[in-house]
Design goal:
By secondary structure, chain A is an alpha+beta fold. Chain A has six helices and 14 strands. Chain A folds into two domains: about 220 residues, Sandwich (Immunoglobulin-like); about 40 residues, no CATH class. Chain B has a two-stranded antiparallel sheet with strand order 1-2. Chain B has a two-stranded antiparallel ribbon with strand order 3-4.
Chain lengths: ~270, ~325
């Protein structure tokens, strides 16, 4: 892993150089190989949020190398920065719809995308998929139940609602045909990150299967961070909140003053 | 054309936001109210996190109230001592409001309490304004002269001890109801994310018998001070003030307010009050309808905390 990681960093993982890059990976695949290995690279390690940011598209390239290149299955999971979320359920009390029940999902990914080359259920046996957390239904989402923490059955309504709402926001998603094999061993997958995605580190995990057996796995990551003017504003607000507030308040008064002068009628 | 809001952390359509600011500004200029009770719900509706919406609207209101207050100040229609007394109550009310808000958020019932408060407050106020203005219009239609202020009819709360003369407002009243009024405005402002102008102006006019123009000018000064303070406080404590969002809103809002003020000047006072009454009642009923109707989705997700620390990917030692 460390050797390939070093090799990957030398290559320029840009989308335009994709063909060249795949060639490089294929060359790497010809090396000594005892068992299957998986090499991964993401098109952009550093997604920068500027003032016209409205989401990003990330392309992931990978190559499986092994003694018997055969029909492989690949499952890729991207997990965004973790956060704690509460799912509320309303019910009718005295004619009003009120939040009455809630489940707290502790330390769950703010972004979760799964891509596979064919429907997840066809790749491996349910217990393997569950162990490897492949697919939204099998990703462990820990709930706080009283003083304890537990994951619950996939059909649990709060969990289902959580997945549905996050899915509608474009933050959770599954692509059953999202991994495209370019040759017997090289593959590509595309992930959409919406504009409202959290900033931070996004972990990518890819798992290689053949005939229902997991052969190898590989990890990489990318970060989403604010850049330029956006980063300056956010940094100022975060590091010196009082002076930021003072500056914004003074700015507001200046705008009010200018507006008053501009539209003065007397 | 979208622009990324650095604190709210989402992209928005810039001109839509500008138009929103201008439309709310038009309404606030026309009726002499802050417009926070319209702006905050609309921002939440387009996806801005509620905490960021409340904080950034207060910045916007600081700008628009300063613009308005300057005009009234120049015309000598601001009662500085009255706004000072209101402010002392207002500060205490703000602290109490923030404390209650924090408590309710822990219980998960902020939405419900805000909803019910909006409905009660706006419907009551809207109905009062509506009936008052309709009676005024009916009197004018019947050819009767408008009611003048009668110095003899003084409510009991104005005759309480600690009486003070406010020269600009031409009133001589007890300090207790004035401080109490300030407290209620500050409390509701912090709890509901509204400037309170649409509450304070009628209260000053009908309860304390302050002349209409002075009531508006004084209310603007109070809004200016509380909203500037709210901006600094929110930025320091919660870090929820979005400068880009506030700037777009205030540029749209201050321009809209000027046109609104011009539109308002061409209308009779009782007609303006009728329209404002209808608007306030409408918003109240709309919020009430949301509480009663069967929601499209009975589930909702709120993010509780944000952890910047990076996590260990699963499957690794």
């Amino acid at each position: 892993m460390s050797e390939t990681a070093r090799g990957l960093r030398l290559a320029t993982p840009r989308r335009s150089g994709a063909a060249l890059f795949i060639g490089f990976l294929l060359g790497l695949a010809g090396g000594p190989a005892a068992a299957e290995r998986l090499v991964l690279s993401v098109s952009q390690h550093d997604v920068r949020i500027t003032s016209n940011f409205a989401g990003a598209e990330l392309v992931l390239f990978g190559v499986a190398e092994g003694t018997t290149p055969g029909p492989y299955d690949v499952a890729i999971t991207v997990r965004g920065p973790h956060e704690t979320a509460v799912t509320w359920r309303k019910s009718q009390v005295l004619g009003l719809w009120i939040n009455t029940e809630s489940r707290t999902f502790v330390d769950t990914p703010s972004y979760l995308a799964v891509a596979t080359n064919r429907p997840v259920d066809a790749i491996a046996a349910p217990e393997i998929l569950r162990r490897e957390q492949i697919g939204l239904a099998r990703n462990i989402l820990i709930q706080k139940v009283g003083p304890d923490f537990a994951d619950v059955v996939p059909e649990e309504p709060f969990r289902a609602a959580f997945l549905r709402i996050k899915g509608a926001e474009g933050l959770y998603g599954e692509q059953p045909q999202g991994v495209l094999f370019l040759s017997d061993t090289a593959f590509r997958a595309t992930f959409q990150v919406p504009g409202r995605a959290r900033t931070g580190r996004y972990e990518v995990a890819a798992k290689l299967f053949r005939d229902g057996t997991m052969l190898a796995e590989a990890h990489t990551a990318f970060t989403i961070e604010k850049a330029g003017f956006e980063a300056q504003i956010a940094g100022f607000a975060e590091n010196s909140g009082f002076f930021y507030g003072l500056a914004v308040a003074c700015g507001a008064l200046a705008v009010g003053f200018v507006a008053n002068l501009m539209f003065r009628r007397d | 054309m979208t622009i990324y809001l650095p604190i709210a952390e989402l992209p928005v359509a810039m001109f839509a936001l500008f138009a929103l600011g201008a439309a709310v500004g038009f309404v606030s200029g026309m009726f002499g109210v802050g417009g926070g009770f319209l702006m905050t719900p609309l921002l939440i509706f387009i996806g801005v996190p509620p905490a960021v919406a409340v904080a950034s609207v207060s910045t916007h209101m600081a700008a628009s109230s300063f613009s308005g207050a300057l005009s009234y100040f120049r015309k000598g229609m601001v009662d500085i001592s009255l706004s000072g007394v209101l402010l002392t109550g207002g500060l205490a009310g703000t602290v109490a409001g923030v404390a209650v808000f924090t408590l309710l958020r822990a219980l998960g019932q902020v939405d419900l309490v805000i909803g019910i408060s909006y409905v009660t407050l706006l419907s009551t106020l809207g109905l009062l304004m509506l009936s008052e203005s309709l009676r005024a219009i009916a009197r004018t239609r019947a050819g009767q002269p408008p009611l003048v202020r009668r110095p003899g009819t003084r409510a009991w709360f104005l005759r309480m001890p600690l009486k003070v003369r406010f020269r600009r407002s031409r009133i001589y009243v007890s300090l207790i109801p004035v401080v109490g009024l300030g407290f209620i405005i500050g409390f509701l402002g912090a709890l509901l994310g509204i400037g309170g102008g649409f509450l304070l102006v009628p209260a000053l006019i009908y309860m304390l018998r302050v002349p209409t123009q002075t009531a508006i000018g004084t209310s603007l000064v109070l809004t200016l001070v509380t909203m500037s303070m709210a901006t600094v406080l929110q930025a320091t404590v919660n870090g929820t003030v979005d400068a880009v969002l506030a700037l777009i809103l205030m540029v749209g809002g201050t321009m809209g307010a000027q046109f609104g003020a011009r539109a308002g000047q061409g209308m009779k006072a009782e007609h303006l009050r009728l329209l404002l009454g209808l608007l306030v009642l409408g918003v109240g009923l709309r919020v009430g309808y949301d509480l009663v109707r069967t929601p499209g989705d009975i589930y909702a997700v709120t993010v509780q905390e944000q952890r910047a620390t990076q996590h260990q990917p699963e499957g690794r030692p």
